[in-house]
Amino acid sequence: MIGTMIAAVGALGGLAIIYWSWPLSQRYNAWTTRFRERNPQINPPPTPERRERSTLIFAWLLRIAGAYLVFLAARVAFDF
């Protein structure tokens, strides 16, 4: 019973990450760009093309992580 509830929460979390992957990716990349602009000695600010590519890559990484959480939750809930 408790395992199923934990799996359901994990599945909902995974689905939320998949659904909001693009806005999360944009916010993360905006934060890293601001950090890089304030601290260019650590890492130079990205070009617009590179920033767009980073946003796309990070969105896909979030989607993969969300799908993994959904898979783990299904594995726990359905015991396969």
What is the gist of this entry?
The chain is an all-alpha fold.
Write the layout of secondary structure elements.
Blueprint: H1 2-19, H2 21-38, H3 48-78
The helix/strand series, from N terminus to C terminus, equals HHH
Rg on CA atoms, Å: 17 Å
User: What count of helical segments does DSSP give?
Assistant: 3
Oligomer: single chain
Count of β-strands: 0
- Helical content band: over 70%
Please state roughly what percent of the residues sit in beta strands, choosing from under 5%, 5-15%, 15-25%, 25-35%, 35-45% or over 45%: under 5%
What's the N-to-C terminus distance?
16 Å
Mean pLDDT: 92
Low-confidence stretches: none
Number of domain modules: 1
- Helical/strand content category: mainly alpha
Q: How would a crystallographer describe the biggest sheet?
A: none
Net shape: elongated
Describe, in plain words, how this protein is organized in 3D.
Helices cover 84% and strands 0% of the residues. With 80 residues, it is mainly alpha-helical. It has one domain. It starts with a helix and ends with a helix.
Q: What characteristics describe this protein?
A:
80 residues, mainly alpha, 3 helices, elongated
